[in-house]
Every structure is written in C-alpha cells, then in structure tokens.
Amino acid sequence: MKLSCLCLAFLFVASFVHAADSRPNILFIAIDDQNDWIGCMGGHPQVKTPSIDALAKRGTLFTNAHCQAPLCNPSRSSLLTGLRPSSTGICGLSPGIREVEQTKNHVTLPQTYTQAGYFTSTSGKIYHDGSMRGGDQKLEFNEWGNRGPMPRPPKPIANLPGPDRHPAMDWGVFPEKDEDNADWKIADSAIDAMKRAPADKPFFIAAGFRLPHVPCFASQKWFDLYPMDELKLPPVKEDDRDDLPKFADFLHWKLPEPRLSTLRKYNEWKPLVRAYLACVSFMDSQVGRLMAQLEVTGRAENTIVVLWGDHGWHLGEKLISGKNTLWDRSTKVPLVFAGPGVKAGQVCHRPAELLDIFPTLLALTKFPARSDLEGHSLVPQLQDANAPREWPAITTHNKGNHGIRTEDWRYIRYADGSEELYDMKKDPNEWTNLAGDSNYTEKKAELAKWLPKIDKGPVPGSKSRVLTYDPETREAVWEDKPIDKTAPLPEP
Ligand SMILES: [Ca+2]
Ligand SMILES: [Ca+2]
Fold first, then answer.
1. Within 13 Å and on the Cβ side, how many CA atoms surround 455?
2. pTM of the entire structure?
C-alpha cells in the first residue's frame, strides 16, 4: 500500500515535471537606440540586416511599434514593469524602479518567469545600466552574465570639438576584431546561457545589445558594406523646424548629441550615418549568432523570440542627432515576435507599444493576465496581422509632453499646450505641422482623447534629461536650470 502511494506520488510529480517541461522558452533580444533602419522596416534604403529580416520572416513584424519614452531608463522601466512613464513618474536616466515607492515591489516581466521556475539569465543591457543593484538583481534573473562594456580607443576617432566633448559622442572603425566588441561578448554570454540552460525547465534568456547606441564602433568589414561615395543620407528639410512650437526645442535642450549644424561644420554627418549603419549590421550579425545557437539547442520550435529596440535615434532629421523627441525618428522601434502562437511571415501595420510585450508574453506562455499592466496583448495581431486594434501608441517625454500615434496620424501635445499634427500617410517625414490648420480641429480633438489621464511629474531623485514646466509661471526648467525661451537651440 505504502509503495503504491509512493508510486502515485512519483507519477504525480513526474507528470507535473513533464507539464512544466512543455512551457515555451523565451529568447528576449533588446537593441539600444535602434530606429527603423532595419532592412525589413525600410527606414534606410541601404541598410543590411539579414538576420533580423530572417527572424521577421519566421514570425510577425510590427512596422508601427513605438517606445513609451524616447530615452533608455524610462523606456526600459516601462517595458519591464508594464507601466507607463506617465503613471510612475520615471522619466530620467535615474532612478531605477526599485528606488521608487510605487514600483519598489512591483513584479516585473523577468521576475514573473524567475518566480515561475524558469531558468532566467541576462547579458548586456536589459535594465538601464546601474538601475538594478545588488540583491535586487537576483530577484529579476537567476544569472547576470557579461554586461559587455564597450571598449574605447586610446583617443577619439570622430572629428568633433573638445575638450568638454562627451566620451560617448564618437564613431569609427574600432576595435580591430569583432570578438573584442561588446556586442560579440554579450552574444557569447547569451549563447553560453543557452548551452547551459537545464533541459528539465523552460528558459528565459535575455540579450541586450549595446549598438547602435553611441559610441558607434565596429570593425572595418562592417564599414565596407557602406562605401562612403555611395552613402545615402536621410532626407532633411532645411526649414523643418520653422513650423514647430518653441517647446519642441526644450525636449532637446543642451544635450551632448550634436546638432546637424555641428555635424556639417566638422564634416561628420556622413561618417556618423555610415558608422550607425555599420553598427546596425554588426549588431544584426550577433542576432544571427543567437538564432544559430537556438537551432543548435534543438529547442527553437518551443521558443518564443521577441526582439525590440528601446527607442529610435535621429541622424540629421529635424536638424538634430539623438533621441528625446516625440517624432517617429525617436519613437519608432523594431518589434518582432516569432515562435509558438505566432503566425509566420506576417507584417502588421497596426500601432503597437513596447508596453504590450509584457501582457503578450504572459498570454503566449499561458500565464494569467494581470489587471495592473497598462499594455494590451498583441496575440490577436500575432494570429492575424489585420486584426483591428483600438489603441494608438503613446510616447511620453517628461510630464505634459506626449505623442499619440495611430496608423495614419501623429499628434503631439507639449506641457505648455502647444501642438503638432502630421498626416503620416501623406507626410511620413513629419515635415508639415498641420496643428494650426482649422480643418484639423476635430482630428486633433479625437487624438487628444488618448492623452494619459494620469500624468505624474518626475519622481523624487529624477536625474538626467529631466524637463519640468510650471504652468503658472510658464517657466520650463531643464536639469534644474530655467530655459531661456528666446534663445535658439544651443550647440552642440
Ligand atoms: Ca537606448
Ligand atoms: Ca516642419
């Protein structure tokens, strides 16, 4: 009798383990500062990304996906908590989510899978650097692999003026060997995690690539893909900023990323575009290495792959370089899902948000939905790319500044009430601001309904790229210093 009880107990445990085995794995790939210069997204006519294009063919590509904040920490914090920056007040490069009362104990996306018994491992940059510390790290992932800091050349390569030049504002051929590049080491670390992942449990393996974030360094062979004399620069309208509200400047006030005028002055526009393209292609080759290893594990069929970028990057458009804006160039990101539950070979043009990744993964892995998350599952679109979607994509950059993106329109409202409106079908470069045209009053009102109802100011301890606006004094403050509203956008 005792023996048969034991046998039953064993069978019960064995069946449970077997059931646990069948839960799908997740390969979670992040890219830093990647705009839509990806082959299958068509953002640049020359860009070569065969690995991401192949991944997109294996699954569903979103061509109209947007970040929730055009900056690393708030974008990643939002994606990983499933909460909008306007709901948490996390809008600068710090604090991290565990330093904020509201999100201190919030169960994040990676934590969900760690708590559920997955083997979880992270390499490179998933959380913003320095935002997740000490004991908190182990609650997120079982393992923290190689973070892959980018090696620096002995002296800067790009010809930009010093001596206060930001060390990240550099680009060129470096290091000599791909194996010495941070992203190679990050891929190595994630590949190693795939090799070591226990066979008796599902895995959640994250790899966060650092390129094409500045400094844009890659070896010569990646630059050779883009000969200087054939290089196409992004389309730029010289008077593009003339129809913008002054407040648009404030989101980009005094940043180390050079203005287009500075790039032109030092003949660095083409070299920057070329370096960015080279870095995108090199990073893409590392995505290829991860996908090749996934095949080797024999677990590819039961692995959901999700690839995303944290926000875009300007390379001259709107006469700037960098991020921190509410236009497509800053907000649009690659987003691909592939694997079980995802229809292959689809391209979805519906608006999607990075915030949607958390609820989508919960649904794909058959975890219960959570009512506290603010995104919406993309499963309907992963099964049918034409499935309707009610919600636009919303991007926030500091309190009061929001962009609303539908399939056809982009509406921006700044903290002082000023606006922009673009007809994205007719004007994909966002060159003609229609906000002042009375024919579009209704359209603006329709889009403004989506502006976040909760709109928190920066949480205590917010630092770096924080903008506040006092509606009473009408004073805008950038990093503790009042902005001179009459001054032109300062160099660099
Ligand atoms: Ca970033
Ligand atoms: Ca314009």
1. 18
2. 0.95
